[in-house]
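Notes, p. 3: input format for complexes.
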Amino acid sequence: MQYFETTLDDYIWEDFKSLMSNPLLFNSYSDYFSILVEWIKKYKDDLENSAYWNRVGTVIDVDIKEYISTRPEILLNQESKRMFSLKPDTVDSFVMRLGNTLWDLVKFRSGKDCPRCKDDELNYVVAEVLKTAEKKLILECDTCGRALNIDGTEWSNGVALIHPANETVVNRCIDAN
Ligand SMILES: [Zn+2]
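Output follows (177 residues plus zinc ion):
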């Protein structure tokens, strides 16, 4: 089977760039998140066939007021350059960029370093195992993708959808154990 990477259509990119005329776009992290999500939902049919859609699909329905990260890495005053100046070649690279951005805004950091990447912090996430629909709070490194149980052992329960976690979810799961 031949594999073609789908090129990102110009009209989608032009419409995405038009978000910059919204004065609220870079007003706050939660405004930025909400405006991106609203736009992504409008173009869902064009974007959801990407191999990276899963990462976006699990984050676009969270209530950002409850999930906003206390420590995003992106800087709003640099987003016009980082996010909107260079057109991604493919739908995949665009969806990856969108996913990384949305996740940065909801990431709940654990304060624990990844055992492999050392200086990189693990994030709390909720893994939904596709086979069993079981949901479990785990730790994930966004640099190497390593997944660990809360007790630090390796997590390997097959293919899972990764959802963001927030403080309420983490406290509830930790209390239950
Ligand atoms: Zn790592």
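The first strand starts at residue 108 and ends at 113.
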